[in-house]
């Protein structure tokens, strides 16, 4: 296949060579089950898992014990929303979220709606930003959870999660943040931001597919979840199943690399993005930049060309790999729910 210019990194990223190198020994010689702590092979696997847990905790300024490994962000979202709702259903049955969340959040909230929960979907402004005041007004006595993403997967808009977190803490409501697009790219402090649950995945940060994590606050306040997968009670009873040690090692290594280069990369990518947009704008003055110009991920650019059909335009760009919207909804030819 002819090498393309790859511009779809919010869908997935290639595996970093250093990440692959860190993973390979755990596919071969270091193959032990991390739960088999009675012999050296198992203890070696467990040590690697705990090292990655520590690296991820450092990335979000949390505690290692609060990191739960999963198969990816979608599983983490399901565990967080369904787990909290079922554990705290006696407190209330109301969820607050916003219209431009990833489908994994919207569909999970819809499932809770079918189970009898009320779900409030808050609108965003023309830049895709939700108003913290609207979150404050939407929280009711029976609200259990507020779910707002850190950065949008299509238009790159960065939400005011610290302000929303402060509101949730004031109102004694759990706050869940989808950080799939912001982990390793934006500063995250789960304590300063009052985040109680947070999800992320490896393949957005040059790590392997099939591995992610869920941060579950265990103190001030302690968050309890109802387990969604029965089995051996792994991950302190939150998520059963044999741990995928090679993938977990890859996730930890990818997070570590991000910590080392985050600020320099953000400056470099923002410069390239701005240069590219100005070049396109000079050639096509009618082009529209979707999302906020300032509150935006450094590497994101989402454009609208009035009068042109996106699918037709992409088909003509045979040397460029890009998308019209979320990879999780790419089979659907309907306009993106985010852009609408």
Ends distance: 35 Å
Structural class: alpha/beta
Average pLDDT works out at 94
Question: Helicity level, as a percent range?
Answer: 25-40%
CATH homologous superfamily designation of the largest domain:
Type I PLP-dependent aspartate aminotransferase-like (Major domain)
Report the portion of residues in β strands.
Answer: 5-15%
Number of helices: 8
Sheet with most strands: strand arrangement: 2-8-7-6-5-3-4
Number of strands: 11
Overall radius of gyration: 20 Å
Indicate the low-confidence ranges by residue numbers: none
CATH architecture of the largest domain: 3-Layer(aba) Sandwich
State the CATH topology of the largest domain: Aspartate Aminotransferase, domain 2
Output the CATH class name of the largest domain.
Alpha Beta
EC number: 2.8.1.7
Family: Belongs to the class-V pyridoxal-phosphate-dependent aminotransferase family. NifS/IscS subfamily.
Keywords: Iron, Iron-sulfur, Metal-binding, Pyridoxal phosphate, Transferase
GO molecular function, one term: cysteine desulfurase activity
């Amino acid at each position: 296949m002819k090498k393309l210019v790859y511009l779809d990194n919010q869908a997935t990223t290639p595996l970093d060579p250093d990440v692959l190198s860190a993973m390979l020994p755990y596919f071969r010689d270091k193959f032990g089950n991390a739960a088999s702590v009675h012999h050296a092979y198992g203890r070696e696997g467990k040590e690697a898992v705990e090292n990655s847990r520590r690296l991820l905790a450092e990335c979000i300024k949390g505690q290692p014990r609060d990191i739960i490994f999963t198969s990816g962000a979608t599983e983490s979202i399901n565990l967080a929303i369904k787990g909290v709702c079922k554990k705290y259903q006696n407190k209330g049955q109301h969820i607050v979220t916003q219209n431009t969340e990833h489908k994994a959040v919207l569909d999970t909230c819809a499932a809770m709606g079918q189970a009898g929960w009320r779900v409030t979907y808050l609108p965003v402004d023309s830049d895709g930003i939700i108003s913290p005041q609207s979150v404050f007004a939407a929280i009711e006595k029976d609200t259990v959870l507020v779910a707002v993403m850190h950065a949008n997967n299509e238009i790159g808009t960065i939400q005011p999660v610290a302000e929303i977190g402060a509101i949730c803490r004031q109102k004694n409501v759990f706050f869940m943040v989808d950080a799939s697009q912001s982990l390793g790219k934006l500063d995250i402090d789960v304590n300063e931001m009052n985040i109680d649950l947070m999800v992320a995945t490896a393949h957005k940060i040059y790590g392997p597919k099939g591995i992610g994590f869920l941060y579950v606050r265990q103190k001030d306040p302690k968050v309890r979840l109802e387990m969604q997968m029965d089995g051996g009670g792994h991950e302190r009873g939150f998520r059963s199943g044999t741990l995928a040690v090679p993938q977990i090692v890859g996730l930890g290594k990818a997070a570590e690399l991000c910590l080392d280069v985050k600020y320099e990369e953000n400056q470099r990518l923002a410069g390239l993005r701005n240069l590219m947009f100005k070049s396109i704008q000079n050639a096509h003055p009618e082009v529209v930049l979707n999302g906020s110009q300032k509150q935006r991920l450094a590497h994101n650019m989402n454009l609208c060309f009035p009068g042109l059909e996106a699918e037709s335009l992409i088909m003509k760009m045979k040397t460029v790999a890009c998308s019209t919207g979320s990879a999780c909804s790419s089979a659907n030819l309907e306009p993106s729910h985010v852009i609408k």
